[in-house]
Amino acid sequence: MVCLGNICRSPLAEGILRHKVQQKGLDWEVDSAGTSNWHQGEAPDARSIAIAQKYGIDISQLKARQFHKDDFKRFDRIYVMDSSNHQNVVKLAFSSEDRNKVDLLMNAVKANNQAVPDPYYGKEDDFELVYQMIDQACEAIIARLTEVKG
Ligand code: 4NP
Asked: CB under 8 Å to 12, separation ≥6 — which residues?
């Protein structure tokens, strides 16, 4: 899960997806990062911690880090929040196989390249919207990747 600062959107996405993965008993590694290093080592934004807490998810112990090209080796799928994140992540790709791992998170719900809006300069309501969007996308990711083919 990748955004710009790794303090608002992507730590929420990490917490929400990990929570669902645990509920389903899946063995997936879930992590998040920012395309920038601006908040390296910091805890998530207090407003992200609060909205997660409202829904019973604790993200207070997460620490921001910058996305690194080695993440292409560690992860099968890389979900970005907006088109700027997409550009910045794809720039670091080694191969077309890597580039194919990257997609906008909301395309998991509907393939129309919708962004999860940056709530950094926003208010509580913006974090609620971001939470609901990410929650819906994570539900769709789990449904799609666990569906029985046949
Ligand atoms: P995020 O939000 O990318 O969802 O973590 C932001 C956090 C910090 C800044 C911008 C967006 N910033 O400008 O410091």
From this structure: 44, 48, 51, 52, 59, 130, 131, 134
